[in-house]
Amino acid sequence: MWCDAAALILPAGAAISGASAAYLFGARILARGAAVTVTVPPPRRLREQERLRAVHQQLPHGDVVSFGGLPVTSPARTAFDLGRQVGRRAAIVALDALLHRRLVRADRLAAYAMRRSGWPGVALFTARLAEAEPLAESPMETLLRLLITDAGLPRPAAQYDVTTADGRWLARVDLAYPDLRIAIEYDGDHHRARDTHRHDIVRERRLKGDGWLVLRFMADDVHRTPDQTAQIIAAARRRSTAQGVSAVRVSSTP
């Protein structure tokens, strides 16, 4: 509704952009109550209002598409803008979400950025794109992964299908260290539902029966006690290494 309203006052050549564009494309990264972001190419100007944030920046014709009758920055331009924003973690959350929905591809985004080598923040965007993970299924999974790597731990594999030595499928885990048989799971609120909780218990039992260690974390572990969470994962890695854990056959989900 607010995007429809913003479109009514956009000057020619302007478009809905940033997290607002991502939201329209189906990437749920927009904060509740956030203002609509629009990009307005110079020399045109648009005054910001309470529910409207205006960015005045170049906007080539090819960077604008029509979506539901609204002018919106293309998926590539949307990713480029969000990947250059000030907050690194928010930028990578956005890139993960857009890549996961297959709105963009990492190689094409890299090529897109190269064609805009003189633009502000290109080096920043390129560095963040290297940290992005198309298999991440939620912003909290992304934040948990970044918590791990920011603590100096190896980057875990995302959305791994775990199979036994004889090829029997056991489960798909959010994050994993396959060589150490460590599964790292983020449990959102929906995991508290009775059926989901029951499924989680059965699933975890299968993994543990095959020699996997399962570490489960919630929002507070990521937002309130990140250092402690990283320490738990680091300690688990040390124990598994000391015990000489051998890997089961694990394959990533394409």
Automatic annotation (TrEMBL):
Name of the protein described by the UniProt record: DUF559 domain-containing protein
Domain DUF559: 173-234
Organism (species): Catenuloplanes nepalensis
InterPro entries assigned: DUF559, Restrct_endonuc-II-like
